[in-house]
Amino acid sequence: FLAPMKEKEYTPAILIKMAELYENRNTYSEAIAVYRMLLEFYPYHQNAPEYYAKIVQDYEAVQDIAAANRTREEIVDYFGPGSQWSKQHPQGNLHAAGLKMARDNLIALGAFFQTQAQLPDSAHLYAVAILKYQEYIAKFPHEENSSEIGYFLAECFFHANRYADAAEAYRAVVNYPDSPYREKAAYNRIFSYVKMKGSPESKKELTVEIPNFIATADTAVVHVADPADGDILTSCNDFCLQFPNSSWLDQVYMKYGQILNDNGAYPDAVKVYKKVIDLQPASPYKVAAAMSAGQSYFDDGDFQQALEWFSAIPKAFPDSTDQIDRAVRMAASAQFKIAEQLSAAGESGQAAAVLLALAHSSSDATFQQRALFEAAAQLQRTDSLAAAARTYERLASAHPGSELSDNALYQAGSLRESLGDWSLAAANYMKIFDSYPESRVREQSLKNALSCYENSADWPAAKKCCQRYIETFPDRTLELIEFTCKAGDMAYKNNQVAEARSFFEEAVRSFHRFLIAGETVDSYFVAQAQFMIGEILYAEYIKLDLLPPFDKNLQVKIASFTEVVKAYTESIKYQIADWSTASSHRIGMCFEEFVRAFLQAPIPDDLDAAQIQLYKDKLAEKARPYKEKALETYIKNVEQAEANGIENRWVTDSRGRIQVLRQELQFGGQTDMSSIKGS
After folding, report:
1. For residues 286 and 566, what is the distance between their CA atoms, to the nearest angstrom?
2. CA–CA separation, 501 vs 516, rounded Å?
3. What is the average per-residue pLDDT within 478-507?
4. 554 and 594 Cβ atoms separated by less than 8 Å
């Protein structure tokens, strides 16, 4: 009904009063309708911006944010550059008011969507905010707040994961000479490029030139594997040049140095880290920069410089406990690397000296252990075997709980063996067996100790090793027979004959027990054990002489002969060349022993010379079959050995006896008793 009255002078005032009444009564939709009517009646009225502002306020009052934002969009279109409003008011206060209205609402739209995008599951709204800020910059590029809007735009790009666009937007802000956002934009530009590292589009190697490197006349040339690293380096250097007094300068330097170091530009990285160290007042990153500079020297292979650098840090920064610990470790690592270089250059003696010095000076047990172990290895290379062994032993003594100690003792034992220090070698091996139950070389160490005791003729200790092996590893089938046999051998060599026989018999019983159980067993040591049973019986057999009463003692001799030959025959059955040839030869000797017994039998006292000769002839006649049987046994032993390609001392001895016996039997020569008994 007011349409016909729109030309009346009082109509705007009436409509404004109506809108205010509706607002006072909280009937905002009616108020908005009135303001819309005002804009329809008077689109270019000087208060038009205010009417639009009221509409936005009323929509917001009823929480209709979407409608408020649509109204803001209208405002931007209606009052912005090139709009009908600006054409109607091409200059003056109304023109300026319209542009301000457009600017404020465009900023409000961008800020709204930027804020909303930070809510859960709303990141897609950054794209809307970006469009609004871009529109603002396009329409109002020279406003005082353009750099601020540019910064907001960059922030939206960053949080939308559009890091390349963010970096470019931050760079644009830096180009505003008077912008309060320049420094922060320059800083964030760096970290936009950091976010681009490793991206699919960042896979091409290139060479980057950085003029005025850290504000010097030098140009740094860096080969980078990731183009993003090149952008980081450039933006870091730009920051250093543009903001030399920034509170963020130390952080930028640290990132600068890191990227240089990562790309192998170690000397340049050191220069950058030194900039942090030289900053005044002192940067909280000073000690980290010092550590990083040392790391760059280390990574560059300049281990002497790294050592000097890391060694200085504990004195320069006594309160930085964590960094001191790391510096000490890195100094030790540098010493290890120096030793490696010396070793590679053939200077093993000097390498050992460096490592021993490290072991002496370091308070870190792990470094001490490793240094001693590697020093010992270097000493081995110089043939300083005794010194190497002592160093290994020092490691095990000083650090018995070290994971290197059992290996160190094993190495020491091996070196002591090579030097013939059997007792020291055995002691090292036994320490492993006694003190390191989980060691992978524990079993072999006991075997090695046994060998050392054998070499030093310490038969009781050797026997004890065998017994401990049997007790500790009862499930080792093959080794059980071997070590039972060896225990017997050690007892035998120590003249403990009864105990030796007991061990040998147990070895034979074990063999047959395992065989019956279906286990695969080697015959070597059972053949040896059976042979040694024969040897024990043989030693008793050769002691028996044919003394009066002759017939009785002859029967005893025959019984002993039968027993010992049976023992040797059992050994032959296992078909082990060494023990078969030995047993066969011993059987031949058993026959010859009967020859000796007959020929050395006492002659009765009541015989005259003729009777004595007759008696001796009768004894020789009784002995001849045994001599022939001995010859036959030796011949068979040699023939079988030659047929099987076997050659050992027993075969050689059998050949010798064949030659002697053939001569005696053929020509009736006198028997050489010394060559029979006990040989």
Report:
1. 90
2. 23
3. 97
4. no
Contacts 24+ apart (CB under 8 A), 539-543: 539/497, 541/590, 541/593, 542/593, 542/677, 542/678
- The two tokens of residue 636 are 């068979």
User: Cβ neighbours of residue 360 under 8 Å, at least 6 residues apart?
Assistant: none
Give the residue-averaged pLDDT of 120-136.
95
Query: Which DSSP helix (H) or strand (E) runs through 220?
Result: strand 220-224
The helix (run of H) or strand (run of E) holding residue 207 is: strand 206-210
Q: Residue 488 is which amino acid?
A: G
- Report whether pLDDT(323) > 50: yes
Beta-carbon contacts of 71 under 8 Å, excluding residues fewer than 6 positions away, are 52, 55, 56, 59
Q: What's the predicted TM-score (pTM) here?
A: 0.73
pLDDT digits (tens, 9 = 90+) for 100-119: 999 999 999 999 999 999 99
Q: Are 137 and 166 in contact (CB under 8 A)?
A: no
Go through the chain and tell me how many residues it has.
Answer: 679
Q: How far apart are CA 610 and CA 618, in angstroms?
A: 12
**How large a percentage of the chain has pLDDT more than 70?**
97
Q: Contact, 295 vs 272, CB < 8 A?
A: no
Tokens found for residue 389: 């062994």
Phi, psi of 123 (to 5 degrees): -60, -25
The CATH number assigned to the domain with range 1-143 reads: 1.25.40
Long-range contacts of 47-53, Cβ-Cβ distance < 8 Å, separation of 24 or more:
47/12, 48/85, 49/79, 49/97, 49/98, 49/100, 49/101, 52/78, 52/79, 52/101, 53/101
Residue ranges of the chain assigned to CATH 1.25.40: 1-143
Q: Angle formed by the axes of helices 321-344 and 303-316, to 10°?
A: 160
Q: Would you state the pLDDT for residue 142?
A: 87
- For residue 581, give Cα distances in angstroms to 80, 260, 590, 631: 118, 77, 14, 14
Gyration radius of the chain's alpha carbons: 52
Q: Tell me: the pLDDT tens digits for 224-243?
A: 999 999 999 999 999 999 99
Q: What is the DSSP string of 302-340?
A: -HHHHHHHHHHHHHH-TT-HHHHHHHHHHHHHHHHHHHH
Q: Specify the pLDDT at position 667.
A: 74
Distance, CA of 370 to CA of 372 (rounded, Å): 6
Residue 223: DSSP 8-state: E
CB atoms within 10 A of CB 262: 16
* Per-residue pLDDT reduced to its tens digit, 535-550: 999 999 999 999 999 8
Give whole-number Cα distances, 33 to 20, 75, 159, 324, in Å: 12, 16, 39, 74
469-492 as b/e, with b when 16 or more CB fall inside 10 Å? bbeeeeeebebbbbbbbbbbbbbb
Q: DSSP for 229-265, please give it.
A: HHHHHHHHHHHHHH-TT-TTHHHHHHHHHHHHHHTT-
Long-range contacts of 136-145 (CB under 8 A, 24+ apart): 136/103, 136/106, 136/107, 136/110, 139/80, 139/81, 139/102, 139/106, 140/81, 140/99, 140/103, 143/103, 145/107
